[in-house]
């Protein structure tokens, strides 16, 4: 196993958390380098695309969360070997990344601009993405996206749906998932209650 260092913000969510979870699930040793928000500006220009997560593999750096998710997913046995199944995983992860970027771009907006931008997303794009991603879950059998087992696609979707349902996104109703994609709401519970994920978050609370 290579020496792995994952660098991401110091919170248990979003783009960097998928790879952390995958490595914890598989019992892969890695350095979990957590960056406080105040230390990010000093680090920013040293990252390839001025963004995190980044993963060091024996001292070499790769960036882009889904690239990292695929790489780690392969090490962890959480990414399909079959090319078609792998493409289905990629499709879900890239769709989640697209909509995450669109929602993320509203974070810096202020007041009415933020309200308008988020209401627009909540009126069309978010329901659309929820329904399309739910359709892929259904096509996979309704419990997991592919191969009737947890993969990095499930972890990526889990992070997004948990964010939407958390209520932290003003102007995006927290019930938007229940309303438009009830199977994804159930999927969230399925992933959350996965024995190793539940144990991991239990240990993070101590
Ligand atoms: N497409 C990139 C996006 C990375 C990204 O935007 N990361 C955010 C954190 S989730 C970030 O580094 N934000 C800090 C900044 O842009 O200054 C990926 O998937 O990794």
Task: Tag the structure with descriptive keywords.
single chain, about 210 residues, alpha+beta, four-stranded mixed sheet, 10 helices, binds glutathione
Structure in a nutshell:
The chain is of the alpha+beta class and 206 residues long. It is built from 10 helices and 4 strands.
Could you characterize what this model shows?
With 206 residues, the chain is of the alpha+beta class. Helix content is 59%, strand content 9%. It has helices at 14-26, 40-44, 65-76, 83-104, 111-123, 125-139, 152-165, 176-180, 182-192, 195-205; strands at residues 4-9, 31-35, 54-57, 60-63. The chain has a 4-stranded mixed β-sheet. β3 and β4 form a beta hairpin. Residues 14-15, 44, 51-52, 64-66, 97 line the site of glutathione (GSH). Glutathione binds next to α1 and α3.
Work out the strand percent. 5-15%
Succession of helices and strands? EHEHEEHHHHHHHH
Strand order of the biggest β-sheet: 2-1-3-4
Q: Mean of the pLDDT scores?
A: 97
Describe the secondary-structure layout.
Layout: E1 4-9, H1 14-26, E2 31-35, H2 40-44, E3 54-57, E4 60-63, H3 65-76, H4 83-104, H5 111-123, H6 125-139, H7 152-165, H8 176-180, H9 182-192, H10 195-205
Parallel strand pairs: 1-2
Antiparallel strand pairs: 1-3, 3-4
